[in-house]
Design brief:
heterodimer; A: mainly beta; Maltoporin, Chain A; 22-stranded antiparallel barrel; 5-stranded mixed beta sheet; 4 helices; about 5% helix; globular; B: alpha+beta; Immunoglobulin-like; 8 strands; about 15% helix; elongated
């Protein structure tokens, strides 16, 4: 690794051996990477405690555009179509632009197949949510032409938690058979790639679609805890209201042109992301009962293009490039949360890697970005009475007269027309030094993130979590300064890695809860505060015997707001410290086609008591996991079986970063999963 | 540059970074110790001398519902809100509010919708809230939920739900 940034990679073998309910749950086994669980089959990425629009997910270098801002939206990517995942821990705006402020997850699926024809059939299942699924992959190559096709199908039932009831807003929700009512779901993905690999130039086209439907926990979604006439307990595999559906369609092209000491590369993509949330229509406040179940819908279309040139000149590796992205988002449904918007961004960057010697290199780069956004006005579809002002300030002991004066009524405006544009200049410098068995890295850089439509233009009730949210049109682009270090040492049977970082935000965008009420709900508004964060990941790998390996890793994160109304508090969804140790025994064979392993893993997660309203403190927990895998040779073919047991002790615990944490829903109980792969 | 020089420079730089991190941390923990300075407690809604309304109470249209509860907080109270909505569809709220006898389910025609925010004078740790709410004469009679919400200055919130019935 010659980069000055801290990058971790996970190949297909890692993804297969650690496969979980979702891609992010699989990758969360990498130190510094966490999954924010949205349900049992969906989760969103978190790197060093930052998530949502502060982590950029790219597929083959192109930014994946879903509804990253949403609390209950996962990542729409097929984990079985990925060859390699690369995680950049720390700000990487220099090459990726806005949103890469917390880090980047770059998923690669365009490696060229080597064989004339090969295929893989995977069958997998999990006991906790009774999930079953299958994934088929066919790849082939004929001369200079190649193809890759993937299809994945998955179906899961309501997931099981070690609890008989959940307490939410002073209401006890009884669970039948410890199942989290209506969290079942299904997913269907398809992916086709066609490529040409020439002597000087390569090109490949990709067309992909991810389609999923998943239920929300029936008793704690929407404005209040509700009983329903729907018989949720009749089947644990059916998906009743409330549920959401998502379809992510993707078409892209990658082309590169190579010469002796350089190359030119281009990526072009169109994405169509369509989310629909359906719920039983209910009246709230002055909103009458809607006539249909479509609570919200979002259709986001994204066009992106990026071009990059690399040239080696003596001891310098030069790189320069630019990218353009256009987004158009349209909303619908009776529950308003995000205004319609269009967004155009472009950026140019240049960087140089100066190889002073084989063992010392310096990196420096700079980037300029410009983004403009247009937000459309939105009015309620129902009328709200304009009431007389309630400015009478009561003194202790005074009896207030609570009669409303009815007057005119109006369609309230929830979001105003708005145009904003932003400029941003970012930079990064780094050094990479090899000293015998040691590799030392240091990088200092600035990253940024443009405010999103919700942060600027929202002005209404968030129908998901009982609160009134108000945007702030004067928000500045969020900036982050970070110092990253990396110390890697490989000495015989031992390898060690320490990656500390120090991070400062002069203007972190934060949704601040206030003591005020608006339309009967607590008012939250977007504001900016100074934030200091630091932390580290540490890992040790020790080959005790040729066939016995001990891996231990841990991570710690400190975050504090240094200004504003919540000065002294932490940040929402802050990851607590955690540590993990794994003992792995490999079968003593030299033949990789007959290899096998047994692994036992112990995980400790600390207590999170640095919280902000409305969070609750989350107690620490310990988990015991185990996995076993073996490859078999069947003539020319290969069969691989992997079994994995999670939370073997069936511990009841809470994950501070989970979407369901605020509702007091514990994490899944004991789970066994199995995967059978047949390679031909 | 010699290898050892670079090595030393690097160690120095890394130490400086960690040193800054450490000192910033210790500073902030001196000024604002997590548990002592930061308010981490929610306000509470407690029964005063004569808490009202209480579960399963019955009122007539045109009656005055006297709201009498006491709010307390460890630091400073914020504001409160009273919201009244129908329970004609039996959607229920809390364990205590669910046990009253309910009328048969029905569709709302002209239900009572009440939603009002009230300030609490600043600087108080305890406040006896007294609000008289007149029930309009032209609303649908039936089962209603009486929701009380209170905040403190730091943005913590507490809720209470009471089930009442409005008779003709």
């Amino acid at each position: 690794m010659k980069s000055a940034l801290n990058v971790v990679r996970a190949n297909q073998k890692f993804i297969e051996e650690n496969f979980s309910g979702s891609l992010m749950q699989t990758l969360s086994r990498l130190p510094g990477v966490q999954a924010m669980n949205v349900g049992s089959g969906e989760s969103k990425p978190v790197i060093r405690g930052l998530g949502f629009n502060r982590v950029l997910v790219a597929e083959n270098g192109i930014k994946h555009e879903g509804q990253q801002w949403g609390d209950d939206h996962g990542l729409e990517i097929d984990q079985y179509a990925i060859d390699q995942a690369e995680v950049i821990k720390g700000p990487a705006s220099l090459t990726y632009g806005s949103d890469a402020i917390g880090g980047v997850i770059n998923l690669k699926s365009n490696t060229m197949p080597l064989k004339k024809f090969a295929g893989q059939v995977n069958l997998f299942g999990r006991t906790n949510n009774e999930s079953i699924g299958s994934s088929v992959r066919l790849t082939g190559r004929n001369g200079k032409f190649w193809y890759k096709a993937n299809a994945t199908w998955m179906d899961y039932a309501d997931y099981k938690v070690p609890a008989d009831s959940i307490e939410y807003y002073s209401y006890w929700i009884k669970l039948k058979d410890q199942r989290l009512r209506n969290t079942a779901g299904r997913e269907m993905d398809g992916n086709l790639m066609l490529g040409y690999a020439g002597d000087r130039w390569n090109t490949s086209f990709r067309i992909a679609d991810v389609n999923a439907k998943a239920g929300f926990f029936a008793n704690a979604h929407g404005l209040e805890v509700r009983l329903s006439d729907i018989d949720y307990d009749s089947s644990r595999r059916d998906i009743d209201l409330p549920y959401h559906t998502v379809n992510h369609f993707w078409v892209s092209n990658h082309t590169d042109w190579n010469w002796a000491d350089g190359m030119l590369e281009g990526n072009f993509a169109y994405q169509n992301n369509r989310q629909r949330e359906l719920a039983e229509p209910v009246s709230h406040g002055y909103m009458p009962i809607p006539t249909n179940a479509l609570e919200r819908s979002f259709t986001k279309q994204t066009f992106s293009a990026n071009v990059k040139a690399m040239q080696q000149m003596g001891k310098h590796d030069l790189q320069a490039g630019g990218n353009v992205e256009y987004q158009r988002n349209r909303q619908g449904g009776w529950g308003f949360i995000l205004p319609d918007f269009e967004q155009l961004t472009f950026g140019v960057f240049a960087m140089d890697k100066w190889n002073l010697s084989d063992k010392l290199s310096l990196t420096a780069g700079a980037r300029f970005d410009r983004g403009s956004m247009r937000i459309h006005s939105y009015h309620d579809w129902y009328k709200t009475p304009l009431k007389a002002s309630t400015s009478d300030s009561p003194m202790d002991g005074t009896v207030l007269q609570g009669t409303l004066q009815q007057g005119d009524s109006t369609y309230m405006e929830r979001s105003a027309n708005l145009r904003r544009s932003y400029n941003s200049f970012t930079w990064s410098v780094g050094v990479n030094r090899m000293l015998g068995d040691w590799v030392l890295k240091l990088n200092v850089g600035k990253s940024f993130r443009m405010p999103i439509a919700k942060e600027l233009g929202m002005d209404g009730v968030n129908y998901n979590i009982f609160r009134y949210e108000k945007g702030n049109t004067s928000l500045k682009p969020e900036e982050s300064y970070q110092v990253d270090a990396g110390i890697v040492c490989e000495k015989g049977v031992l390898s060690m890695q320490l990656t500390p970082y120090l991070n400062y935000f002069p203007n972190y965008i934060y949704l601040n809860p206030t003591p005020q009420y608006k339309e009967g709900l607590q008012l939250y508004y977007y504001t900016q505060a100074k934030v200091l964060r630091w932390g580290f990941e540490a890992s040790v790998s020790w080959k005790i015997l040729p066939y016995l390996k001990l891996d231990a890793d841990g991570e710690y994160l400190y975050a504090r707001q240094l200004s504003g109304e919540k000065k002294g508090y932490g940040l929402p969804f802050s990851t607590p410290w955690s540590a993990r140790a794994e003992l792995r025994y490999l079968l003593p064979t030299q033949n990789p086609a007959k290899s096998g392993f047994v692994a036992l893993e112990w995980q400790v997660v600390g207590t999170q008591d640095i919280i902000v309203p409305p969070e609750e403190k989350t107690k620490g927990h310990q988990l015991l996991n185990a996995s076993i895998g073996k490859k078999f040779k069947l003539g020319e073919n290969q069969l691989e079986i992997t079994l994995r047991g999670e939370n073997l002790l069936g511990k009841r615990y809470y994950d501070h970063t989970s979407y369901y944490r605020l509702m007091g829903v514990p994490e899944p109980g004991r789970n066994f999963s199995a995967m059978v792969s047949w390679n031909f | 540059m010699k290898r050892s020089t670079i090595y030393l420079l690097y160690i120095f730089f890394a130490a400086a970074v960690m040193g800054i991190a450490g000192s910033l941390t210790s500073c902030s923990s001196d000024d604002t110790d997590d548990t002592t300075v930061n308010d981490l407690e929610k306000p509470e809604i407690v029964d005063g001398d004569l808490p009202n309304p209480i579960d399963c109470q019955q009122y007539h249209r045109g009656d005055v519902i006297a709201f009498r509860y006491t709010f307390t907080d460890n630091a400073e109270l914020g504001n409160f809100n009273i919201e009244i909505h129908n329970n004609f569809d039996h959607h229920t709220h809390s364990t205590s509010a669910g046990d009253c006898t309910l009328d048969p389910k029905k569709n709302p025609v002209s239900p009572w919708v009440y939603n009002q925010d009230y300030p609490i004078p600043s600087g108080l740790k305890s406040y006896d809230a007294k609000v008289d709410i007149t029930c309009p004469k032209d609303i649908d009679p039936g089962d209603y939920h009486f929701m009380v919400r209170v905040t403190d200055k730091s943005g913590w919130q507490q809720l209470k739900a009471v089930s009442i019935k409005i008779l003709e």
